[in-house]
């Protein structure tokens, strides 16, 4: 995938995650489009994801019989984001999502997206949907894209543990594989791998290209219409994380390791304003036998306790909210919440196993590595994890009382539609005990509240991980990068985690990060193309 460095392009896209979808829409309009990717693989953190897209009012939702729910979603966004300065961005996002899906579905490469029910994350907010607004790309047989599959980034389990996902891929890998094939097939798209952005070229106040290092060689590429920065966040840049998000350093992030803020710095260097640099798409990270955390959601039993041995959160609540709560309490409570300890007993092991499929025993490496610790008594476990026994004992006794009644009186676990996704009994009823009748699976009234009283006892480690930072360059409704005075920098656009999130400090629903990335990449292309 070489390139003639003397050819001027119409559009340059830095990054090959969500921006690759934008690059396709540019090339499909006949714009000569160059995508430069820092690594030797295409897809960025999107390739690790499920590729959910939070797109209210889009065609897949209508096909699912959910109607045009844009106005309800708009009201929901207004309520949960609660930031009038972001309302114009929200409106632009809502308008772009449905239009983009319509356009992508005209391509045989993208085919038809589908809706899968994932409840909105703030279930009691006005306009929240119990079925959500998330759409997904169809799976992809890698044979369909031929040699392009060789440069498609592997999934996180494959990269970390060598998991064989086979030839039929779904989620982010399917979306990126389809986008790559569609982009190159236009005849107007060029991909350059192993090319790291160094700086932006500015002439007469306008961004007209980039300087980069490609295979060790310094190169310059010009863009007649503009440059779109869609190169992820700064999650793996220790200096920026420690400056803006202490005590985090980036080592626990689940974002792609190459995301070190290159595009953010390049934008700042030409006068761009920034916002939300103290924010990330925080998630609880379950520490694995390799000593690194992986995004965890859907806790079905046990409790999380802090350094005082006290429970502090509904462990099953939406992951971004749980991750933020760990960070907030660690900074403000005077009690350490990093690490937190997931405490449970043999009941969880007997029902769900741990660290793998529920029908397989716990793998030896969990206990052998110390990622999972075991003790014959609760007092011994408290000593092993370094928390006061009295605090842990009181916490467990209270929780066991909740397990007997089926009602979590402290944190209401099991009472939301989101929580109940993690057990098969539906629908939701006002009294949580009505949602969890006794079944052969459990003798307890709420299967998300198993008592902790059957030895041996176990503890795993929970850390504040993330799936990327969410602060970056400030943009307008056309994804144009703004200066501190609010004026746009001509020729410069940003999307995805390179830009400050339209959703502010919250995560409204499944698919907001990737939905934002491709929606604002699309809006940038519409502006570049004069559409």
Structure description:
With 531 residues, this protein is α+β, with helices and mostly antiparallel strands. It is built from 16 helices and 21 strands. The strands form 5 sheets. Strands 1, 2, 8, 9, 10, 11, 20 and 21 form an 8-stranded mixed beta sheet that branches. Strand 20 and strand 21 form a beta hairpin. It is globular, with a radius of gyration of 24 Å. It starts with 8 loop residues before the first strand and ends with a helix. 53% of the residues are buried. Residues 425-441 have low confidence and may be disordered.
Précis, in short:
With 531 residues, the chain is α+β, with helices and mostly antiparallel strands.
Please outline the major beta sheet: 8 strands, mixed
Q: List the uncertain runs.
A: 425-441
Work out the helix count.
16
- In round numbers, the mean pLDDT is 93
Terminal Cα span: 29 Å
Basic shape: globular
Helix content: 25-40%
- Secondary-structure-derived class: alpha+beta
**What Rg is obtained from the alpha carbons, in whole angstroms?**
24 Å
Q: β content, as a range?
A: 15-25%
Count of beta strands: 21
Features:
21 strands, 6-stranded antiparallel β-sheet, single chain, 16 helices, 8-stranded mixed β-sheet, alpha+beta, 531 residues
Question: Helix and strand layout, with pairings?
Answer:
Elements: E1 9-14, H1 18-27, E2 33-36, E3 53-54, H2 59-63, H3 70-81, H4 87-104, E4 114-115, E5 134-136, E6 140-141, H5 156-161, E7 168-169, H6 171-185, E8 189-192, E9 195-203, E10 206-214, E11 217-229, H7 238-244, H8 262-269, E12 274-275, E13 280-287, E14 293-295, E15 303-305, H9 319-332, E16 340-345, H10 346-352, H11 364-369, E17 372-375, H12 378-385, H13 389-405, H14 417-420, H15 432-435, E18 457-469, E19 472-473, E20 480-482, E21 488-494, H16 512-529
Parallel strand pairs: 1-2, 1-11, 2-8, 11-21
Antiparallel strand pairs: 3-5, 4-5, 6-7, 9-10, 10-11, 12-19, 13-14, 13-18, 15-16, 16-18, 17-18, 20-21
């Amino acid at each position: 995938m070489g390139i003639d460095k003397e050819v001027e392009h119409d559009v340059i896209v830095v990054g090959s995650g969500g921006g690759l979808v934008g690059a396709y829409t540019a090339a499909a309009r006949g714009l000569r489009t160059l995508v430069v990717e820092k690594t030797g693989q295409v897809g960025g953190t999107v390739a690790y994801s499920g590729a959910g897209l939070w797109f209210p009012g889009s065609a897949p939702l209508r096909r699912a019989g959910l109607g045009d729910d844009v106005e309800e979603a708009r009201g929901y966004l207004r309520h949960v984001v609660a930031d009038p300065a972001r309302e114009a961005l929200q409106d632009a996002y809502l308008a772009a999502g449905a239009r983009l899906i319509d356009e992508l579905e005209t391509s045989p490469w993208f085919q038809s997206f589908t809706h899968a029910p994932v409840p909105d994350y703030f279930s009691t907010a006005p306009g929240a949907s119990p079925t959500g607004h998330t759409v997904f790309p169809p799976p992809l047989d890698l044979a369909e894209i031929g040699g392009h599959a060789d440069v498609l980034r592997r999934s996180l389990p494959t990269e970390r543990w060598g998991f064989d996902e086979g030839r039929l891929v779904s989620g982010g890998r399917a979306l990126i594989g389809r986008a790559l094939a569609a982009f190159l097939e236009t005849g107007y798209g060029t991909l350059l791998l192993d090319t790291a952005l160094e700086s932006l070229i500015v002439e007469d106040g306008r961004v007209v290209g980039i300087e980069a290092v490609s295979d060790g060689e310094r190169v310059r590429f010009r863009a007649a219409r503009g440059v779109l920065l869609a190169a992820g966040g700064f999650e793996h840049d220790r200096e920026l994380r420690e400056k803006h998000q202490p005590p985090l350093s980036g080592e626990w992030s689940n974002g792609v390791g190459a995301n070190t803020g290159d595009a953010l710095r390049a934008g700042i260097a030409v006068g761009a304003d920034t916002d939300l640099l103290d924010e990330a798409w925080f998630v609880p990270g379950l520490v694995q036998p390799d000593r690194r955390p992986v995004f965890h959601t859907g806790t079905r039993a046990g409790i999380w306790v802090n350094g005082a041995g006290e429970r502090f959160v509904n462990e099953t609540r939406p992951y971004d909210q749980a991750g933020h709560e760990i960070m907030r309490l660690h900074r403000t409570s005077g009690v350490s919440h990093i690490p937190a300890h997931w405490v449970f007993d043999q009941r969880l092991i007997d029902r769900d196993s741990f660290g793998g499929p529920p029908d397989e025993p716990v793998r030896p490496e969990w206990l052998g590595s110390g990622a999972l610790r075991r003790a014959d008594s609760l007092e011994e476990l408290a000593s092993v994890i370094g928390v006061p026994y009295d605090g842990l004992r009181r916490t467990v006794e209270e929780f066991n009382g909740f397990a007997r009644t089926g009602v979590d009186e402290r944190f209401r676990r099991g009472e939301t539609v989101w929580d109940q996704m993690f057990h098969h009994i539906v629908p939701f009823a006002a009294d949580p005990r009505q949602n969890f009748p006794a079944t052969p699976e459990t003798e307890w009234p709420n299967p998300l509240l198993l008592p902790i009283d059957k030895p041996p006892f176990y503890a795993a480690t929970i850390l504040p991980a993330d799936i990327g930072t969410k602060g970056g360059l400030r943009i307008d409704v056309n994804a144009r990068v703004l200066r501190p005075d609010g004026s746009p920098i001509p020729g410069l656009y940003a999307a995805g985690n390179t830009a400050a999130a339209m959703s502010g400090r919250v995560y409204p629903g499944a698919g907001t990060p990737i939905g934002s990335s491709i929606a604002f990449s699309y809006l940038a292309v519409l502006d570049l193309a004069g559409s």
